[in-house]
Every structure is written in C-alpha cells, then in structure tokens.
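Sample intake sheet
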Amino acid sequence: MRRPGEADRFGVPGQRASLVHRWLRPRRRRIGIAVGVAAVLTVTAIVVWPGGGDGNAPGLVTRVLATGAPGGGATAPIPKADRATIAIAAQPTFLIFVAGRSLTGTSFSATQIAGRDWGWPIGRESELIDASRTGEAYWSPAVNSDRTMIVYVGGSVTQIGLFAGQGDIVSAQLNGTGQHVLTTTNSDSDPVWSPDGRQIAFIRDGYIWLMSSDGSHQRALVTGVSVVHSIAWAPNGTELAADAGQPGRIAIINIQNNSFHWFSPARSGVEQYDPSWSPDGKQLVYGVTGRNALFISNLSGTNVRQLTSCTAGCEQDLEPTWSPDGSQIAFVRTLATGEQIYVVPAAGGAARPETTGPDQHAMPSW
C-alpha cells in the first residue's frame, strides 16, 4: 500500500516532506517512477512464465533482463523448517505477511510469505507459506474469507522494489501450493478478494480493475476515481474503499452502479491512507498524515478516535487489517530499525509487537 510522503522525491505536490528517505519503499502508484528509474534501469525484456517455485510446488518465475539494473536479490533471510499446514493457516487468528531482509527499493531482497498466530509468544518462529527464489519477490498477500486461498503479487526484486510493488498477480492454496498466475502485465498491485471469493479487485496503473478468481474477465472499474494507491473490499460485497487522488483521500465506491463519494471532506495538508473495513462493515480504520497514526470512525466520518500513537522512534503506522472477529487490528509500524508488524485491540489500548528481529515484516492480511 502506498506510503504517504514518498512521492516528495519526485516533486509531487501535497505530500509530506519528512519521510523523503522512504521514496524507495514500494508504493501503490506509478507517479514519478520514470524520473527515479530512468537513470539506473533500462528494461530490455520481461518474461513471465509458470515455473519452479521453492521446489515444493509450482511457482511464479518473473525475470527482468535489464541493462544497468540495481542490485538486490539476496537470499530470503529467514530459513524455516516448518511450512504452515492448511489447518494451521485456516485458523482465524493466523496472520499472514511478507518477510524479507530488505523491503526497500534498490536493495529489495528475496522475500517470504509467512504467518503466525497473533497469540503466539513473540519468540516463537513464524511459519512459512512460500519463499521466493533468489532475485524474485512476493508482495501484497491477501487471504480469502473462507481462509482456503491467498492471492499476491510476484515479480523480480527490481520490479517489486522500484515499480510501486507492481508485478503479476498469483493465486495459491493457503499453504502456498497450487500456484496459478492470473495476470501477466507486470504492472498490477494490491489484489483483494471479494467477500464471496468469486472476484479479485486490484490496481493497474493507478486504476481499479476487477477479474474473476481464475483470472478471467479482467475489466476496468470506471468510476471517475484515479491515482488509486490501495483498496479494500467491503463485507457487503458491493463497495470498495480506496485511498486515491493527490493528495490522498478515501473514496467509497459502489461497484454496481459505478459511482463513488468521498469518505470525508478534504483537509489541507492532511492525507488519509490504507483504509480497512471492520467485519460488520460499519467502520473504517485508516492512517492519517501529520500524526502518521491510525484512526477509526463510522462510515459517515463521525465518531473519529485515534487508535495508535506514533511517537518515540516511530515514523509511521500503516497497512491496518482487521481480525475476522473484529477484536484486533494488525498493522505495520515503521521504526528507525525497519518495519515490524504490531497488533492493537480494536477497542483501543496498547499496541504490542508481533514480529521482531533484523528482518523486516510488512503487508499483513487476516
């Protein structure tokens, strides 16, 4: 999901300047990418085909043949003996996320999709869903509502690291097996399941697209909303929440009649980002720049309350996702030492770290 402030590096107005160093973090947009990449990357060929995965299941192999390509591609740093079983991963308290030594631009590393139960002690190792091969990366995993499948973005570390987390969308069983490449444009991001599991919404070059869960019937959703950075499907199945525009605001999109309205009035110098629906569909949790923290409010934008406090070494809280029972919210906290996943009670209270260590963790899905 898009990190507010990162576009300052490319001179996009209306963004925060305090997080300029984060411009290399994968973003959910393509604004200004040509400016930042043209000097270091000349792509001569992109080849995508189903391939060998991690040796245990068919996988996605995405190769970028480039002249002067940036470095990266370090081996995934967290070798694990335990692959998550479908039974473990299907538990509603099992949280899935991306893990990697570096999740930043030119040093982006090979990654893993991993998971852990939010109630496990902090010292207990996460379990492996799937690991990308050296030079490749996975991003944006999302679990379907019946917890049998995941969908995510796959590509080279160069593609994922420099092109806003864009690549090709892949589906798989919840333990990482049975991979199936759904899109092959190399420019798709942020896939999310419809509540009934029959469709997947995703972002292609700043616009919202829909497709059937098998990758067929790909079509743009024409609503007038553009420059989309992240999306979330409402539990009612008929609406999407999108972080869109410059500066970013949350739009509530009616899929059936191709219309939208803004979640709240525009505020000068303040952006909203990364919306996520409560399981009952009555509230949104989202980030707000300035405080760089998470807030919860009703769909009318009323009863706003601050959920997290980003202070004392915290740079930004982002990427919130609600637990299936509505009691907890997992999110990513950006620290001086990197990014880690935290969990906070939805009713409010202290946030506790869910992941630690030298490796970074991001993009949680519940």
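Comment: The CA atoms of residues 238 and 255 lie 6 Å apart. Confidence is low (pLDDT under 50) at residues 2-79.
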